[in-house]
Amino acid sequence: MYELVIYDTSNYEDFPIGGQLTSVRNFLTYIAEYQKDYCSKILLVGLTTSVTNLGKKKIVDIGGKQFDFLPVVYRNTNLKEVKNSLRLEFLKGLFKYKDKIPHEKEILHYIHTPEAFIQVKLCHPFARTAIFSHGSFFNMVRGFRFFQNNKIVGSCFEVFIKWMLRNANLIFVLDDDSLNQYINYNKNVVKVNNSIILPEEDYSDKQLHNPIRLLFVGRLSKVKRIDEIIKAVENCKEDVVLTIVGDGEERTHLESLVETNRVKFTGALKPDQVKNEMIRGDILVMNSVLEGKPMTIIEAMSYGMPIITTNVGGISELVEFGGNAIETDGTFLQIICAIKNIMSQYTEKVALSLCRAKDYDFKLVNAKVFSELRRIKR
């Protein structure tokens, strides 16, 4: 008998690479290591990158334990070829395979992607729900690839978000802004941290390379403003190179901006490969116009990387501006200045990043999450 159904637009293994997938996997790793008997009580619902697996229950191995998994939508791994909204396709898949998703009254539905709330509540109005907000839901329209300029869709989405917030039994948030927004609709809002599995190795002796190695990790979309990072590298007088990890709709355009051999695109990488890039890299650069609390920043800090970033979302709660991080306005000139600043104090900033990363140990964070889920399930 299942007790918890988890919804996410991922395959819970390696796609799509990003902080949300890492966060969910870290929760499941915690369950596998510290709540072993609970593994068989969880059903994962998500997507598959193999069309033959669609609608068929399979097994996912996480932390050495097995979890049941039901994929309800197929997604091509080539993010540049995506032609339809994943959120809309996922919602359709949830309705198509609704009979395969258990909805007994004892079950708690743990939702990491908001459209799943529609299917759960329409099919089972009295179902208990917990929602994890990985970034402000009210800012999501700005990050839409599809319908971004459709005012009707935007207005309807905002109405839906308010309805969801009012009717959820529990909401997890990562930042103070989301907490202050949501508390107006629901008093059962709990602030938690994103979590990482801290590396066993010691990176306190991390040294700058020559040339200096900048790293970007994330989806290649307009809201990430990667073009300004490229421009900074192309115009920086210091010897600097940039590795861009990730894929997305902006890749072809971004590749066309590169005029030297200073910039390398790796495409999407698996978690272990991303880890290796962070070990090899010197400075992480983020340049988004909107974020939650990016997992990428937390992971980079755990490998001793100082951070260059815009101050959006909950980033100011993750880093110490003027300490292990330099704030910019997103323009290439300020990014160049930030590179020079970090060069002059690299060892100190490495130590500060390593120190801050300890607050995000997956054991501590997910013990709280699990406790809260159990509380509302009783």
TrEMBL record:
Residues 209-324 form the Glycosyl transferase family domain. CDD domains: GT4_PimA-like. Coiled coil: none annotated. Pfam families: Glycos_transf_1 (PF00534). GO terms for molecular function: glycosyltransferase activity. SUPFAM superfamilies: UDP-Glycosyltransferase/glycogen phosphorylase. It comes from Faecalibacterium prausnitzii. InterPro entries: Glyco_trans_1, Glycosyltransferase_grp1. This is Glycosyltransferase.
